[in-house]
Specification:
Strand content: 15-25%
Number of helices: 15
Distance between the termini: 7 Å
Largest sheet: 9 strands, mixed
Helix content: 40-55%
Strand order of the largest sheet: 1-5-6-12-11-10-7-9-8
Shape: globular
Order of helices and strands: HEEHEEHEEHEHHHHHHHEHHEEEHEH
Length: 368
Amino acid sequence: MTDKPAIRAKAERLFAAFQAAGAVPVEADILQPAETLLDLYGEDIRARAYVTADPLRGEQMLRPDFTVPVVQAHMAGGAEPARYTYMGEVFRKQEQDLGRSSEYIQVGFEVFDGSDPAAADAEVFALFAELLAPLNLRAATGDIGILLAAVDGLTTSDKRKAALKRHLWRPRRFRTLLDRFGGRSPVPESRLRLLDQVDRIGVEALLDQAGAGIGLRARDEVAARIATLQEDADLPAISEGEVEILDHILSLRETAPNALEHLRDIAVDLPNIAPAVTLFDRRLTALTARGVDVDRLDFEASYGRTTLEYYDGFVFGFYAEARPDLPPVASGGRYDALTRVLGQGRAIPAVGGVLRPELMLMLSGAAQ
């Protein structure tokens, strides 16, 4: 049985370490408004969170993480720069592995500081690496910002770029779209039939045949969707060269310095990624200044694509290589765009991460 007092004691020590690093302790309600999380992540969040209904407050979720409420609190009136730490339970559904906890303690550290994003990234990562050093974990890093910049650099419509970026965290759907936009796979037969009907009888006649709408969509929504499909059908395919460049970025797995050199070469043909590559370079310099051996640091360009969608820059995780069945012992990253959404247009560069004291104790042999 899990030794909860031992886990709590370990969490308290980590909590104190973050406070010693300059973080202000904060709290977050266990029940969170579901509306905010659904607006951010869509219905996908329901598969991972426990949802309940309150007769006065509406739909609520047991806290799936701390980042969103901490960002909300900071954007409502926090000073900049600011460092926060928190400790408490989070709740995640486990649909495939009964051995994984659905309720566990997280201890986190968040930095809101726009003066030097590369230095802030390095500060968070180096602090986590120091706390986790006795466990000899493998650190994985990536950069969602490079992937987003690469999509933005494609020669295609803004709507296609938006669709690719929206599904960046769903690799299979992203691949399906990229192959279709790049002409590698055919347009679905159902779409071709729809467009053929539109060409033959027109949008209005088609909508008249369908009635007021199609499914749950109103007539004007269906008309707008058809217009989008027609516009997309008239677009040329993304060039094979650009698709190959994006494929190369997505498959890049190297030590950080070697990855940097690869990305510099790619930036010659896809200059849109150059600012993100420069930030990557500055981050490595900042990590080195904090004692991190970047020559042994792994970089995976696709790392972080299956986690929560608020990361939009540097991402990292720490893993026990001898226990591939375990989730990451620690994870985190940069989420500037999330502050813009929750700040209603006002953004503050931010980066942070969480530790799982239960896993730390398990790996150190202190808990069974």
